[in-house]
Design a protein that fits this description.
- The protein has helices spanning 22-33, 65-76, 90-98, 100-103, 117-122, 124-133, 179-186, 247-260, 292-296, 301-311, 331-340, 346-355, 368-375, and strands spanning 14-19, 39-43, 58-62, 84-87, 141-145, 157-161, 175-176, 193-198, 202-213, 218-227, 238-242, 264-273, 278-284, 327-329, 358-359.
- The chain has 13 helices and 15 strands.
- β12 (264-273) and β13 (278-284) form a beta hairpin.
- The protein is an alpha/beta fold.
């Protein structure tokens, strides 16, 4: 495929490793809207919809990560030009990172120079230490074995899985007002090692998305997703999409990415406490679920990352001013959160839906995934 601009990023294959989720659907649409038709290697799920995107050149269905990697290596590791690999969930990320030496000569792929280094920083304690060194605020925390009571923390506390691939991940998160409640929570927690953090009463949450090439020497921050309402245990799915304007926070994020030596798409998660302090939560060294909003806002992170990997830098000329009132919505989840809970009327929700600038399933230019996800029996 040739680019109208002649950039040789279009001469490479682009391969998305994924499950059935709107995160990889957004990556696929971003590439497609840039004129790239990726290959999708998809671990089968309950409902097949990602592979029906019109932007995919070939959909390959597999049963698990091991089979996906076997297909990747057998069919695409000897291309004349190295394919670009897009990783869209933590199990794939951890696998590729732990075998990075097997992939680095054949593919452009998310990495931190060394095999296993990304997995090291997927550990919340390790990334928290690096964030503290970079000058960010972190809620007081400690690491304990399940059943062990923390020392030196004030209640309430919140429990968190030490990594997204450990235990039951978000289902291991409990807010506990006392030692008694913490001990009760331990009976439900699946992980063996737990991060316990002082609970900060929040009034807001936001993420900052970006891309990094040349091992953190060139970092471009594309957008802020600022969540319109709060949901216990996860982010809400209705958000304002904004430009990144906090220069101090931007410098600290870039410092962390450079210290990791990271190359790839990422996001940094923060919350605003009722004390008006900004607290660091974590960095996802992969695209977050809402990354497609950056493309809708004019900054196509997946395309810019691939182009930047070949150029050796990402130009600030890619910056676009995001219009005021730009909003994005994960339509099915937001409907459950606001309409089924009777927080919002159907009429009000429909007005919000139609006024959104970005949806993560519905797309009138690529309608089949939406039909297959929700309407097809």
């Amino acid at each position: 495929m040739s680019s109208p601009k002649g950039h040789d990023v279009f001469d490479h294959l682009h391969i998305v490793l994924c499950n059935e989720h709107y995160n990889p659907l957004g990556i696929i649409r971003s590439l497609g809207e840039a004129g790239i038709r990726p290959i999708a290697i998809i671990v089968r799920g309950k409902r097949a919809f990602v592979g029906s995107s019109k932007y995919i050149s070939k959909a390959i269905y597999v049963e698990n990560i091991n089979e996906a990697v076997r297909v990747l290596m057998d069919d695409y590791s000897n291309c004349a030009k190295k394919p670009f690999i897009y990783i869209t969930n933590d199990p794939f990320l951890e696998y590729i990172d732990s075998h990075y030496n097997d992939f680095k000569e054949s593919f452009f792929v998310t990495n931190a120079r060394e095999e296993g280094k990304i997995s090291f920083y997927m550990n919340k304690d390790n990334i928290n230490r690096l964030a503290l060194e970079s000058g960010l605020n972190i809620p007081s925390s400690t690491i304990v074995k399940k059943g062990q009571l923390p020392q030196g923390l004030n209640y309430p506390v919140i429990t968190k899985a030490i990594a997204s691939t450990a235990g039951a991940w978000k289902k291991d998160s409990f807010i506990c007002d006392s030692e008694t409640e913490l001990l009760e929570a331990y009976s439900k927690i699946k992980g063996d090692t737990i991060l316990i953090q002082e609970f900060i009463d929040r009034k807001g949450e936001f993420n900052i998305d970006g891309i990094s090439v040349n091992h953190g020497e060139s970092v471009f921050l594309s957008m802020v997703t600022d969540y319109i309402y709060l949901v216990p245990g996860r982010y809400s799915t209705y958000m304002d999409v904004l430009n990144v304007t906090n220069e101090e926070l931007s410098r600290k994020i870039k410092k962390i990415i450079a210290q990791i030596g990271y190359e790839g798409i990422f996001d940094a998660e923060f919350m605003m406490g009722k004390d008006d302090k900004i607290y660091f939560l974590e960095i996802n060294l992969r695209p977050n679920a809402f990354n497609y909003a950056s493309t809708c806002a004019g900054m196509n992170d997946p395309y810019l990352w691939a182009k930047g990997m070949l150029d050796g830098y990402v130009s600030d000329d890619n910056y676009k001013q995001i219009p005021a009132g730009f909003r994005a919505m994960v339509e099915n989840d937001d409907f459950k959160d606001r309409v089924l809970s009777k927080e919002t009327s159907v009429i009000r929700w429909l007005k919000d839906f139609f006024s959104c600038n970005c949806h993560f399933y519905f797309n009138r230019h690529d309608i089949k995934p939406f039909i297959n996800a929700f309407l097809k029996k």
